[in-house]
Write a structure and sequence with these properties.
Helices cover 37% and strands 16% of the residues. By secondary structure, it is of the alpha+beta class. A hairpin with a 4-residue loop joins β12 and β13. α4 runs parallel beside α5 and α4 crosses α8. The longest helix is centred in the C-terminal third of the chain and has 46 residues.
Amino acid sequence: MSSNTYVETVAASIISQLEKGTAPWIKPWQPGERFMPFNPSSGNAYHGMNAIWLLSVMEDRGYSDNRWLTFKQAGSLGAQVNRGEKGTAIQYWKWTEDLPAVDESGNPLTDESGKVLKQSVRLQKPKVWSATVFNANQITGLLEIERTSLPEFDRHQEAEAILIDSRANILYRQSDRAFYSPSTDTITLPERSQFHSMDGFYATALHELGHWTGHSSRLNRDLAHPFGSQGYAKEELRAEIASLMLGEKLGIDHEPGQHVAYIASWIKMLQDDPRELFRASADAERITKYLQGREMLQEKVEEQKITEQVLNPVMVSAIDMPLRTNSDRIYLDVPFAEKDPAKALGAKWDRTEKSWYVPADISLEPFKQWMEPKQTLHIEPAQNPELEFAKAIKLAGLVLDGMPIMDGKSHRVSVEGDENSQKSGSYVGFLDRHPAGYINNYKTGYEGKWKSKQRQNSIGTKDVAILEAEALERKAAKVKEQVQKKKEEKQLVNHFSAEKDLVQSTGGIQI
C-alpha cells in the first residue's frame, strides 16, 4: 500500500467515525475500559497515528483485545493467525537514524565494554515502511492476560504529580470555564469542588496542560488563533488526542463533553488535508512524552532554601554532608511507563531516594531488565562532572553555549537543526552526592537519564562541598551583577531627572 493510499484510507475511516461519534478521542470511557494498542512480541506500545488507527479498527470490528502482532510475531509466540483473517496495514515513519558518536577530534566514543556509542541524526526525508498486523482476537494460541486499572487513589496521585511537576501556573476560579491563555502562560480551571468527580477534574486539567505545552518556551506550537477558527480546532485536536493517550496511561476516565463541538471542523479539516491527522497524532505523542518527562525531570528535585545561600554563600562543612549509601537496597532504573510491571513483581518505592528498589527477601532475577539504566549515555570518565554532563548533552544533539548549569532546574536549549531562537531541547543537572541529570531532545524524541561515572563512594564529601559551593558562588555572582545593574539604571534615571529639573528651573533648552 502506497503512503498516499494509506493516509487516505485512515482519514476516511476516522471521518466516518467522527460522523458517528465513535472516533477514539471523542468516545467516552470509564477507568479500565480503554487500553492503547500494544505489541506483546516486541514489548512496545504503538505510537502516534498507528495507535489511533488501531484503536479505530478495534472500534469498527468490535475487538476487545489491545494486542496486535505481525503473522511472524504470532508464530514466534507459539500462536497462529486464524485462517481467512484480514490484517491491518500500519506504517512507520523514521525521521532519525543512529550513527556512531564521535568526539571533537572525530574519534568514535565507546562505553565501558568498548562498544561504539550511537547518536540520533535528523533525516532530511523520512524513511517509510509498512507492516501488516493482526489483533489478538484474530489469533489462536495467545495466553490470556489479566487487565487491571490503577486504584482511584493511585491514578489521582499520578495525575496530581504531573500537574505539580509541570510547574505550570494554574489559577482556580468559581466559574464553568477551563482554558489556557498563551499571552499570560496561565491555565484557569474551575474549583475542584465544582467537578462531579476527581477523574473529571484531572481529565480537564490534563487537557489544558496539553495546550500549555504549546508555549514557545516548551514545544513551540502555533497557538495564535481565535476561538472558532480552523487553527483553533487543530490545536484542540492535538490536546484531545493527547488527553486520550495520557488518560489511558493513568486510567483516568474520559468524557469529551464540549470538545465534540469541534467535530464538524475536524471532518472538514481531514477532508481538505488527510495528513493533518498524522501531524496531530505526532504532536499529541510529543505532548504526552513531554508531560511524562516533566515528572522524570523532578525525580531528584527537593525543596531547598536557596535564597539565603545565594545571597550569603558559605563553604559547606564536609561533616554536615553525610553520604547516602543505603547498601542494603538494590535500586532499579525503572522508566515511568514501566512502574506497574516492576511494582507487580515486588519492587518498592523509596520516597527519600525517589527510586524503585528490590527488597532484600526477593530474587533479583525478574528485575534484570531494570538493573542497567535504559537510554543512559555512558561516556569516558571526566574529573569534572560538568564536563562529563556536557559531553552527554552534546551526544543527544543539544547545543550548549558554554558549560551546563547544574542547579537542579530545567534549562531550555537549541538542538541541532533548530532555526533562529527555536529551543527544542532541555536538560536538568544535579551536583549532589552522585552527579546526575536528565536530557530531552524534543525534535528527535530522545529522552534519557545521565549519571556520572563517578559512583557515590568515589566522590568525597569534600569534593561535593566544593562543587556545591562553586555553584552557589556562581548564583551569588549573578545576583550581585543584577543588583549592580539595577543600581546603575537607577542612578542614570536620577541623573536625567536632575538635569530635566535644572533645565525647567532655568528656562533653558537641553541639547
